[in-house]
Amino acid sequence: MLSTENLTKSFGSNHVLRGINVEINKGDVVCVIGPSGSGKSTFLRCLNLLEKPSGGKIIFEGDDLTAKKVDLDLHRQKMGMVFQQFNLFPHMTVLENMTCAPLMLKKATKEQAEKKAMELLERVGLADKAKAYPATLSGGQKQRVAIVRALCMEPDVMLFDEPTSALDPEMVGEVLDVMKELAQAGMTMVVVTHEMGFAREVSNRVLFLDEGIIMEQGSPEEVFSHPKSERLQSFLNKVL
Amino acid sequence: MAHWFAKLNETFIATEYWTLLVDGFKNTIIITLGALAIGVVIGSIIAVIKYFAEDSEAMKPLAAICNVYVTVIRGIPMVVLLLVFYYIIMKSSNNGVLVAIITFGINSGAYMAELMRSGLNAVDAGQMEAGRSLGLSKLQTMRKIILPQAVRYILPAIGNEMVALLKETSVAGYVAVVDLTRAGNLIRNNTYDAVNPLMAVALIYLILVVGLSTLLGKLERRLTPVAQHRKSH
Fold it and tell me: I need a surface site. Which of A214, B11, B111, B220 has the fewest CB within 10 A?
């Protein structure tokens, strides 16, 4: 459903991505790991064109997103994204954060949107925070809201950009639990993460990105227990 | 003291020159508010264009035009600009107040564009990304997400611009407008009393500016920081 063909991205003379080919199928939970500066986040941000690729193609549900005439906004509605820094809208309540896009894009009536939002909040245990402003929430609560905000658009795929990296350690678990539940419910997910435990346990495929290419990929078992390349071995030695 | 009251009576009341001051006061306020409105509109259009041009090639030519406008306007003294509009560009209009509103508005817009752009840039870049990632267009995100947050940075700056504008309109007399300053000067001319008319004018400006600043200060305290006033209960 989502694939890249020879995806490249340069910032000036800095070649961050040097030809990435991946194929993500419906229901896949793909974790992207790698040392910092390896291009993991850039890769993820290219998938919904928050970064404009320098070359290559991104095919989402049959359409090439890098084509000039494509309606990017329409496709982005189907690709939820969760950021490291949450990026909740501070001037809106939790509920408004969640219903704002569906209402503006006329995806639902106010009643429907709020009903759906409340159901989602219930699922992540934050129904009592519906009327709260983001500034009053903890980091873990913010990120859970960010996840359900994206889910309100009923996306076909969810992109996670280091969703737990900005959290205090004791809050990482609550966010990973929500993601785990989402994966089990069959959501297609691409997760850039440093949480090796999560990658091993929840994903069905792990990509090891290094120096702008996919150095190695495979099932969690293959990648974590039988790493082939020297780069992956030394990376795992450092983080595990 | 009695002597002074007699003088005041002579200068303002008996001659009915106080009505001149009232008319001048009205014109000063009209020009300031009118110019402010035009300035805000021009300023926000330019600010949004320049904000989008930062990552959109298509907007670059428009942004270049805006830059020329800002540079030209900011490089010309207000009085010269006013004379140019009155005697050349809007020659066919003999409505000095209208010319003054438009000229001060165009001038103010150039300054406000920069104030507003820095307000937009003060909003975290992640906000635009979050809006876009949900499928909102650039303009939708601007309207619903960025602008409401930028306002609390921009409003105080607009307030300061308004105070500056109010005082700057005192040169409107150059194009036959009887504003507050001109009114005072006319009274001085006709009564041979320089002290009282000019003191009265200065005092009115001072009261206006102090009043406005106090109001703005209150507004600013209400606007920042946004979260502390909106905690849920």
Answer: B220
